[in-house]
Design brief:
- The chain is of the alpha/beta class and 245 residues long.
- It has nine helices and seven strands; from the N terminus they run E-H-E-H-E-H-E-H-E-H-H-E-H-H-H-E.
- The chain has a seven-stranded parallel sheet with strand order 3-2-1-4-5-6-7, with helices on both faces.
- Helix 1 links the parallel strand 1 and strand 2.
- It is globular and about 45 Å long.
- The two termini are 30 Å apart.
- 43% of the residues are buried.
- Bound molecules: acetoacetyl-coenzyme A.
- The site of acetoacetyl-coenzyme A has 21 residues, from helix 5, helix 7 and helix 8.
- Acetoacetyl-coenzyme A binds next to helix 5, helix 7 and helix 8.
């Protein structure tokens, strides 16, 4: 994808399982990479393992003011941001009968407020420049629901509502906004599910396996490319057939 050479991407939570693969794939296409992180020790160890040089920026994406600061740090080091991937996310699984208000708020804040907080920093500038890409990483569970995840499913479904609304507002400005909804991917987040529960979930995936982070990253790179310029407001599933609609 030569057209992406020297573009700048901000990937939130880029040091995690899916985020890391997205950073790598975009870096392979010549994109300069910035990623937010929460845990400095983990982020620095991660950066040392990469074949490219990511810009690491400490940021709580659930905190608006922290995102304002993050924007100026990224832009002062790399210039204007062309591609935003809202990938940072957490789970705090509990059945509704056991969920606490804190678990509700943590997940809505980290997974959904963050999408507003981050996009609000960059999308108006993209519109003025006449080119931009926003890619929101949601989940199969935002499409089909999941026992024990009222908080997460609400946030992930909300992300796609945001995608469709913003896509309409910026379509004429050369900015596309899309959602990618991964199924169960082999990352620490999925491996944290109790083993017997996880085995039952895998048994329901027609492909018979967990997805690979690289399979999500390839889709993200395509959506960032020039060839995807007419695709906006869409939701792409990559879930091994677990949910079809
Ligand atoms: N459907 C229907 N009933 C279920 C059920 C299900 N899937 N799972 C549990 N139950 C039932 C149990 O049989 C039990 O019934 P009884 O009370 O009649 O015995 C009852 O619900 C247990 O309820 P609890 O409130 O006690 O639930 P728990 O504390 O034992 O477990 C949970 C809740 C920890 C959320 C557990 O269900 C779980 O781990 N579920 C998996 C959640 C999941 O898939 N998370 C995905 C994380 S990865 C991710 O999110 C990435 C992505 O985008 C895909």
């Amino acid at each position: 994808m030569p057209e992406l050479k020297n573009k700048v991407a901000l990937i939130t939570g880029g040091t995690g399982g899916i985020g890391s693969a997205i950073c790598q794939r975009l870096a392979d296409a010549g994109v300069r990479i910035a990623t937010t992180y929460r845990n400095a020790e983990k982020a620095e160890a991660w950066a040392q393992d990469q074949a490219f040089e990511p810009l690491l920026v400490a940021c709580d994406v659930g905190d608006y003011d922290d995102c304002v600061r993050m924007k100026s740090e990224v832009e002062s080091r790399l210039g204007t941001v062309d591609i935003v991937v809202n990938n940072a996310g957490i789970t705090r699984d509990a059945s509704f009968r056991k969920i606490t208000v804190e678990k509700w708020r943590q997940v809505i804040n980290a997974n959904l407020d963050s999408v507003f907080n981050v996009c609000h920093q960059f999308v108006n500038d993209m519109s003025e420049r006449g080119w931009g890409r926003v890619i929101n990483i949601a989940s199969v569970n935002g499409q089909k629901g999941c026992f024990g995840q009222t908080n997460y499913c609400a946030a992930k479904a909300g992300m796609h509502g945001f995608t469709m609304a913003l896509a309409q507002e910026v379509a004429r400005k050369g900015v596309t906004v899309n959602t990618v909804s991964p199924g169960y991917i082999a990352t620490d987040m999925v491996m944290a599910v109790r083993e017997d529960v996880r085995e039952q979930i895998i048994a329901q995936i027609p492909a018979g396996r967990l997805g690979r982070p690289e399979e999500i990253a390839a889709l993200v790179a395509f959506l960032a490319s020039e060839d995807a310029g007419f695709i906006t407001g869409a939701n792409f599933a990559s879930n091994g057939g677990q949910h079809m609609h």
